[in-house]
Amino acid sequence: MTASANFPYLLALAAFLFSVGALGVLIRRNPIVVFMCIELMLNAVNIVFVSYGRFLNSEEGQVFAFMVIVVAAAEVVVGLALITQVFRVGRELDIDDLDELNE
Amino acid sequence: MNVPWLTVVLLLPLAAAALLQVIPRTAVTLLKALTVTATAAAAAIVWTLVATMGGSPHSAGPLSFHYSEIHQWIPVIGATYHVGLDGISAWILALNAGVFVLGAILVSRRSTDRLKLFCGLLLLTETMTAGVLLSVDLLLFYLFWEGMLIPLYFLLANYGNENRGRATVKFIVYTVAGSLLMLVSILSLFFAHGVASGNLSFDLTQLLGGGLSKQPLVIPWVNITTFTPEQWAFLGFAAAFAIKIPLVPFHTWLPDLYESAPVAVLVFFAGLVSKLGAYSFIRFALTLFPDAVNTFKWVLAALAVVSIIYGALMALSQRDIKRIVAYSSLSHLGFIALGIFTLNVNGINGAVIQIVNHGIIIAALFIIVDIIEQRTGTRDRHELAGLERRMPWLYAFFLVATLAGLGMPGMNSFAGEFSIMLGAFQLHPAYAVLAGLGVVLACWYMLRLHQGVMHDPPQPRTEAVGDIRPAQGLVLLPLVGLMVFLGVFPGPVGDVTQLSVKQTTALAHGYASTAGPNFSGLGPVSPGGQP
Amino acid sequence: MTTSTVAVLSGLILLLPLAGALLNALVGWRLSRRVVNAIGTGSILAAFLVACVMLAQVVGAPDGAKSASAHLWQWLDLGTGGLRVGVDVTLDPLSAVMLMVITGVGLLIHVYSVGYMEHDRGIARFFSYMNLFIFSMLVLVLAADLLILIIGWALVALSSYLLIGFWYERPSAVVAARKAFITQVAGDVALVIAAFLIVVHIGTLSMPGIFAAAPSFASGGLLITVVCSLLAIGAFAKSAQFPLHTWLPDAMEGPTPVSALIHAATMVTAGVYLIARFHPLFDRAPVAQGMVACVGIGTAVMAGVIALSQVDIKRVIAYSTMSQIGLMIFAVGIGAYSAGMFHLATHAVFKALLFMAAGNVIHALHDEQDIRLMGGLSTNLRRTELCFLSGTFALAGIPLFAGFFSKEGLLGFGLTNGPGAFPWVLYLVGVGINVLTGLYAFRLWATVFRGEPQTARVYAAREAPRVMLVPVAILALLSAFLGLILGVWSLVIHDNFLIGVFARFLSPVFTTPASGPLAVDLSTGTAILAGIVGTLGSLLGAGLAARIWLQRNPDPSAVTARLPRALPQLAYNKFYFDEIYDALLVRPLVALARAARRVVEPRFMNSGVQTVSDACSELGAWVRDYQTGLIRDYASYMIAAAGVFVVATLVLVSR
Prior knowledge:
The complex is a heterotrimer.
Chain A: H1 2-27, H2 31-56, H3 60-88
Helix pairs in contact in A: 1-2, 2-3
Chain B: H1 5-20, H2 28-53, E1 67-74, E2 79-85, H3 87-108, H4 115-134, H5 138-147, H6 149-158, H7 164-197, H8 204-207, E3 218-219, E4 224-225, H9 229-244, H10 253-260, H11 263-288, H12 290-316, H13 321-341, H14 345-376, H15 387-390, H16 392-405, H17 412-427, H18 429-454, H19 470-488, H20 491-510
Antiparallel strand pairs in B: 1-2, 3-4
Helix pairs in contact in B: 1-2, 1-4, 2-3, 2-4, 3-4, 3-11, 3-14, 3-20, 4-5, 4-6, 4-11, 5-7, 6-7, 7-9, 7-10, 9-11, 10-13, 11-13, 11-14, 11-20, 12-13, 12-18, 12-20, 13-14, 13-17, 13-18, 14-16, 14-17, 14-19, 14-20, 16-18, 16-19, 17-18, 17-19
Chain C: H1 3-27, H2 33-60, E1 68-77, E2 84-91, H3 93-116, H4 123-142, H5 146-164, H6 171-202, H7 207-212, H8 222-238, H9 247-250, H10 256-265, H11 270-277, H12 279-282, H13 286-309, H14 313-333, H15 337-364, H16 382-396, H17 402-417, H18 424-449, H19 457-460, H20 466-492, H21 500-510, H22 525-549, H23 558-562, H24 566-572, H25 577-624, H26 631-654
């Protein structure tokens, strides 16, 4: 009973968190902060998964949430390693300076 | 003992390619020996299979095979590992084995950069082309059909003259585009059959009879009636095969590629790979889409005739002798295609026979052109003359190859071309007459090529060249011998092909509502003119 | 005559020249000249002996069993509804005659070649090609299946090509060889299409089968007319008849023995053989027959006129060959098959003789072929002149020489059996041809051997060696007495026919319900009258020639010079056929090919693909601007796309 009652609020929370994350990705220049914002978005997604799982009475939502957590962890590992590497070659940590992706 | 010989044929080159990887790249002799041995072993198996097959197909059904193997592959979607050898694929497979032996021998006769890569790719290509010839399952067929391009891409992109890059990309992109259309067709066929029959299968023998709607598709909103789904699916297949053969106007990849490719690749590329389009037409398009084939045969046969004449005209206007041979190949492939679209026994048998014959001829011609280029340093027709006095043996080989190339009666290609033209005549006399014009033109450009190079007083570049070495003669001898032998005794090829062609022809007509306005089978035939 | 005998004998006669050809081709370059000569001529000698045995078999066979076939092997069998061809051979009187002509005349020419080609380096190659030719010709005449006949038909064209271009460093020879081959391939295609019509209509290519089923063709119908016309076109290409005749004079680029063997005695007469062989079909197609007869007689006139104007000794003989074959074609076109075949046989003898005698002259003058530079050769080349004269008499149809019997035979038949409403029209033309023949035959003899020497070289000319004289002498005797013997023999056995023995021998082949009388029946007055008028024509021509050219300094163009200027000009340039074909066929095709390369291929064929590829590049260039490399941009694209997706979903769900 309570689960379905809370459901819209949970979705609203997820949407809010996702928007905050997305905005952060778009306007912040520090890669570490961008990363944190991405985590925020992922966690927003997790909330959606889990709440739908509860709402629909199935475990699959939680399964996917765990999946996302694992992937997020892996992504952080790779991402932080990249950032460290950029820092070590003596570049400033500003994503607007890092535009070599199109080469 | 029940040996799965077809799988052995498929895996043997692959295994050899794997084995190559453990040999150090400096052990050149070993690399060459292994490649030649592997291809020769595969050839020995194939030739024994073909020589002993004879008689009627063993399995039952409207499309039956002399040898077949079937295993589960991806049960969920009904894909099977179904390979089979019948009268149509048998001699082409024999040709396949032969041209790869030839390629292996040619590459082992000279020093090649990155030899190990070359040998590995060559063996890989053999597996793929053999797979195309043996597959009965459409998904398996598609896998091999596309897989073939991977080793070929690296072969063509890494070896050959300086223009190879552009030519290779053109070929690959062209072919892949056609193949994707075919994939769409395969999938639509697959789903339609699944819906109609309730079981999923990619197996050709299951898909016969289709399931695709024969109601014309109508473009919504504008209300334009187009082809039926069956016809669209057929056109997808036709695009892939017409590009591979190639038929005019899909041929523009051919001359550039043949010009730039090295001879060791050309013997199996021109000798076999381009024929796979023709073979697949017979195997898949004719059997799966009888109605559509009967609808489009007039257009396709016309395209084939255009290819014959256009290829001949282009060959007539070239200076580069390698390009002349390339365009002659276009013209002759037109003959093969014409035979297929006649949809009658004579035409299709002739096409199969001609696939084998032309493979032999074109391989020999490219080898000869390559020898001439190596000796004189030029491929310009205007700088070449008078080689007969310097190279009498090459002259003899070239003469036979030229005659076979121009369809001389008594040479191997005559049996094929005569049957094809007879089939075309049964379709409509005009096709045979126009193809006859192609024969006269072939005679012109082939003789001009041969005479130009061999006769007249020698030119500066041809003053001081020596004749071919015995080893080169030994490579050409079996080819030339086969041209004469198969001209005098084409019977064995026909005996094997005709039973399976009968099946295919029946399938191509069995579901057809009308047999076509001008089709008439031959009347009762008196046996062999016995008194 | 059993099937197995036929199989063994045919196998033998085919394998012998083939073995000779292969042996000389493969190992000839290591063998001494003597061995090469022995292989080359020995194989033909053996084949000739086999041919004699085969002739004896046919002669010895009881009436009604003069023909036997054998099945050697199955060439191709495509099952029900498919092509089925056996390698079958037939021995019957017609093929026996051809066998004798081919191997007999062939043998003499081979022997002659030993002398003629004495100084040539490529002797092994030469004999190899010559043997190949004999083999091919034998395939052609023995074949009992139309497809096998076509193979032989093409193989003779091949050997002819090889031999015309034998001196391959001579550009003119190379071009002439190609021209001959391509013209004949065009004829082959006609033959092949005729074969298609036949096989589609009656389901077999086996010649006994075709002849048995001939009545199934509606007599005079369109189908049979087309079939026969196509067969005739094939025959015209091979026999150098209008309009496919231009290759023959050029073919004289080959060595003289080749001209004698291929372009006079055997190959060029294969067209006559073909029509005679397929007479059951031609008998049912009167329109095609009429066409054949007209083309034959027309070619005969045209070639005769050209022969009168040429100054190259070999070309004169070549045009006379064309003219004589025109007569044979005329004969088979009016149904006088035996007469046509008899003229074929005698012509093979006297024309080979003329060519070889001309070869002696050319040899003695060190490759001089212009008759204006000859004259007075009779002093030094006494024996050659005698032989040449025998050939000239036979060619001109002087009574009692071989040509007289054969030519008057076929012309006499023409008086009553010509095509159309006025059968005698073509006969009168034939009499005119007799006059022409007499003129050009004696003109050649007179300008070459009589009169005063025109160059110093004539004084140094030496008679040919014995190996070249003996074959010529044998042929000279034959051309003097062959007709006489057969004619007397015919009278002895009370045949009322001029060449009754020959016609009687061939009658098992040509007796079909449809075909008419076999030869000139001497018991009727019209035939005798026809013969007399024809002979008078020949004598008139010969006499005129003697008056005009038997003088100290004969002018080869004496006759033509008196005609209106345009005519000799036309004749000397062979009526400009080469130029016309060049302008109408060769040049347009070459231009078309060039257009294909320069315009069609780049503009049309390639442009479709090029357009697609260019479009892809354009698209790529446009998209590239949005690939800034800034993560922020990429993120905003993603989020924008996600936004679009959400909105779209909402819209679709709410509908």
